[in-house]
Specification:
The chain is an all-alpha fold. About 55% of the residues lie in helices and about 0% in strands. The protein has ten helices and no strands. It starts with 14 loop residues before the first helix and ends with a helix.
């Protein structure tokens, strides 16, 4: 939980019990002194109805807009990511929260594009989440490796795609097919030890003349 730097229901070790609490509509206690807009975003994200929950990209956009420095601010440092409650987000990322790391990646990528700057900070947070095998991060790392927007080494991007494949994520095959179509296939691409057996048949069929 970003507002408290703690894991929701951390006193419960059984993940199934935590899931049951959520399914019944239970939520962690809300800390005091949370800005109203931040609280409103949090409550929407906690909605019992999935269709009422905002997408992560929209949450990142709202947080970015919420904590933009005032126009009169003379600060232009890219190191100052977000003031105020964003410190909680950064703290969570530092403590190893992969979701927080991925959120900061999206926020900083959006900011870098708006300011027409290199997304170095965004890439750093993305790589933190990739190291923890965060599925969205692995997909983003592979995708941005292929479109060359983050200056990611091809071998590292390919490794992320293989990790995504090992987790059974179907998006891995989409990225692999993109590699084939673009003709970017590395020498080790046909190594049968680098991907799930379930994908080898379709992949080899695609590669074969």
């Amino acid at each position: 939980m970003l507002a408290t730097h703690t894991k929701p229901f951390q006193e419960i070790e059984n993940g199934g019990e935590v899931a049951l609490k959520y399914s019944k509509g239970e939520r962690p206690p809300i800390p005091i002194n949370i800005p109203p807009k931040y609280l409103e975003i949090m409550r929407r994200a906690w909605s019992q109805e999935p269709e009422n929950r905002p997408e992560m990209r929209l949450i990142c956009k709202e947080l970015y807009e919420l904590y933009q420095p005032p126009p009169s601010s003379s600060s232009s440092s890219t190191e100052s990511i977000l003031p105020g409650p964003s410190k909680a987000l950064r703290r969570s990322a530092e403590l190893g929260d992969a979701d927080a790391q991925y959120s900061l990646f999206e926020i900083n990528l959006h900011r870098a594009r708006q300011q027409n700057k290199k997304p170095y900070i965004a890439k750093a947070y993305l790589e933190m989440a990739v190291d923890q095998k965060h599925e969205k991060a692995l997909y983003a790392y592979g995708k941005h490796c292929l479109d060359k927007t983050l200056d990611i080494d091809f071998a590292k991007g390919f490794s992320a795609i293989m990790q995504l494949d090992a987790l059974g994520n179907k998006n891995a095959m989409t990225l692999l097919n993109s590699i084939i179509k673009n003709g970017d296939k590395p020498e080790f691409f046909e190594d049968k030890h680098c991907m799930n057996a379930s994908n080898l048949v379709s992949l080899n069929a695609t590669i074969s003349p």
